[in-house]
């Protein structure tokens, strides 16, 4: 329980980083698909 209480802030930072990384990968994937379809 104590570890959970102390890890709330790091967990929030990790969650934010994970969400940002997923968003970047998803956005890059869309950009690549649009670029490929555009050239094709």
Helix content: over 70%
Give the tally of β-strands.
Answer: 0
Shape: rod-shaped
The oligomeric state is: single chain
> What average pLDDT do the residues reach?
85
Supply the helix-strand structural class: mainly alpha
Query: How would you characterize the largest beta sheet?
Result: none
Low-confidence stretches: none
- Strand fraction band? under 5%
Spatial separation of the terminal alpha carbons:
55 Å
> From N to C, what is the helix and strand string?
HH
Instruction: Give the number of helices.
Output: 2
Radius of gyration from the alpha-carbon trace, in angstroms: 17 Å
Note down, in words, how this protein is organized:
It is a single chain. By secondary structure, this protein is an all-alpha fold. The protein has two helices and no strands. It has helices at 2-6, 8-39. The radius of gyration is 17 Å and the shape is rod-shaped. The termini are far apart.
Describe the structure concisely.
With 40 residues, the protein is mainly alpha-helical.
Q: Which keywords apply here?
A:
mainly alpha, 2 helices
Helix and strand layout, with pairings?
Blueprint: H1 2-6, H2 8-39
